[in-house]
């Protein structure tokens, strides 16, 4: 059972790998090679790399020929264009390496299959299914077929090389088929055949191209050489940023600080300046088919002034700016001033119209591009002020209002409440009496009743003394009851009052006894 499972798993794995391998070529980008062109400096010729052209392996995809260089460019929207495209498919410039030498040719369609027709110098005509096509990347290059004859010595500046920039390389050229042979099966669109210009033969050079019906290449004394005309400057207009995909990073930076002080004897204006510098950078990105290092004038809607940059190269300039600071200060006071700013980095995708100007004074060409702009700049520059303080001791100057800073002073007031309890005190003054109670102790029961057997007063004086004693005792009893009602819970106070009453009673009894005697 294990072997069966392994066999099934192996089969499924093989199928999956086969599917992936089958899909792999569809996602593989076409390999590209640089295109070289002639740079004429005086009597010397050098090969330089083109910024707008490339050689790419033909992938048989219809979209691959969208920006391929045609052998003939008719007037747009003309009757000739419509009729010619219906009779003959479009033909494009191609190249094939033959015995180590790259040879230029043109494409033809045979039974829905596109092949490249080439012929080396004085060699047989060949058909190749594997070849490279010349691509004008993004349509950014301006090409023209420059007429040439044997009376023109040398090569044109900007002539497109079919090789790798060597001295012996051929240049892409074309010639028109003879009258009556323009629609032969291996002729290009509108009867043009593409060949090679060799500037190193017969003093002024010759064009070699296969004529329709011939089996070998033929030498020609006139024809056209493919020349690239590069722009001399650009203009970037109608810039629209994609705000949803824009990334902004801000870094708060201290740009400078100073102290404003007033050492005069009256209120006066204190002023100074803060100077700071920063690096301002701008980079408008790259784009396929746009020449790097070319002067570009940018019309940015965010700024009222235009800016000049070098396309494809980051522009960095150091800016020095000065800010003035002033304020009114009282005598002997000072204030600290700090200058802050946000060093802002922004990365924003954008679309714009790029207009190219050419040195042949031809009409400028505009096209829409998409790229990414990266900038670094100082923004949100502002000043912050400290509270005003005394220069002598550094303490803050009292103020109720201020326009620069707000100082909040919190004062905590602690209120202590003292509660005094005043107790009413009664001064017990001795009441003068003329008689004392009878001798002998007075026993008082628990129910408050006395066990003493009273004696009737014998005389009117005794009666008066007795009445006086009753009044004194009643007064003392009332005082005792009032004291108990004021402090019912004060055991110590009641004890003191009872003791005081006992002493007074004893003193009164003693006085009365002495008077009787």
Automatic annotation (TrEMBL):
Residues 401-493 are annotated as: Disordered. The keyword Signal applies. Residues 401-426 have a biased composition (Low complexity). Keywords: Signal. Residues 1-30 form the signal peptide. PROSITE patterns: PROKAR_LIPOPROTEIN (PS51257). Residues 461-474 have a biased composition (Basic and acidic residues). PANTHER family: AGAP009604-PA (PTHR31649), PROTEIN UNZIPPED (PTHR31649:SF11). This is Protein unzipped. It comes from Anopheles melas.
């Amino acid at each position: 059972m294990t072997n069966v499972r392994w066999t099934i798993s192996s089969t499924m794995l093989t199928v999956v790998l086969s599917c992936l391998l089958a899909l792999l070529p569809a996602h593989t980008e076409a390999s590209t090679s640089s295109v070289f062109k002639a740079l004429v400096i005086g009597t010397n010729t050098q090969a330089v790399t083109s910024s707008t052209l490339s050689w790419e392996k033909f992938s048989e995809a219809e979209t691959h020929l969208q920006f391929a260089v045609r052998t003939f460019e008719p007037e747009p929207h003309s009757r000739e264009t419509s009729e010619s495209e219906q009779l003959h498919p479009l033909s494009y410039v191609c190249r094939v390496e033959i015995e180590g030498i790259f040879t230029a040719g043109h494409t033809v369609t045979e039974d829905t299959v596109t092949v490249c027709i080439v012929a080396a110098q004085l060699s047989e005509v060949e058909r190749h299914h594997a070849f490279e096509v010349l691509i004008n990347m993004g349509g950014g290059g301006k090409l023209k077929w420059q007429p040439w004859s044997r009376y023109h010595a040398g090569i044109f500046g900007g002539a497109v090389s079919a090789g790798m920039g060597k001295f012996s390389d051929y240049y892409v050229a074309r010639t028109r088929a003879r009258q009556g042979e323009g629609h032969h099966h291996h002729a290009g669109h509108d009867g043009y055949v593409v060949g090679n210009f060799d500037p190193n033969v017969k003093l002024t050079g010759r064009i070699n191209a296969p004529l329709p019906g011939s089996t070998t290449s033929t030498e020609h004394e006139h024809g056209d050489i493919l020349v690239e005309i590069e722009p001399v400057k650009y203009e970037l207009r109608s810039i629209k940023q994609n705000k949803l995909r824009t990334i902004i990073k801000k870094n708060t930076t201290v740009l400078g600080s100073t102290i404003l002080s007033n050492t005069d004897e009256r209120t006066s204006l204190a002023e100074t300046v803060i100077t700071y510098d920063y690096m301002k950078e701008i980079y408008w990105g790259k784009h396929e088919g746009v020449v790097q290092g070319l002067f570009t004038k940018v019309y940015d809607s965010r700024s009222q002034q235009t800016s000049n940059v070098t396309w494809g190269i980051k522009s960095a300039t150091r800016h020095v700016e000065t800010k003035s600071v002033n304020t009114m200060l009282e005598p002997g006071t000072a204030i600290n001033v700090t200058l802050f700013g946000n060093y802002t980095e922004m990365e924003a995708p954008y679309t714009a119209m790029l207009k190219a100007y050419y040195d042949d004074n031809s009409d400028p060409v505009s096209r829409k591009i998409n790229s990414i702009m990266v900038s670094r700049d100082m923004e949100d520059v502002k000043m912050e002020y400290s509270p005003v303080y005394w220069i002598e001791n550094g303490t803050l100057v009292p103020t109720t209002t201020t326009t620069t800073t707000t100082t909040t002073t919190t004062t905590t007031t602690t209120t202590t409440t003292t509660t005094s309890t005043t107790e009413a005190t009664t001064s017990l003054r001795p009441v003068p009496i003329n008689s004392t109670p009878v001798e002998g102790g007075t026993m008082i029961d628990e129910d408050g009743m006395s066990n003493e057997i009273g004696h009737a007063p014998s005389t009117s004086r005794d009666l008066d003394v007795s009445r006086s004693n009753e009044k004194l005792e009643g007064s003392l009893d009332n005082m005792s009851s009032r004291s108990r009602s004021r402090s019912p819970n004060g055991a110590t106070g009641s004890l003191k009052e009872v003791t005081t009453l006992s002493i007074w009673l004893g003193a009164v009894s003693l006085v009365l006894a002495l008077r009787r005697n």
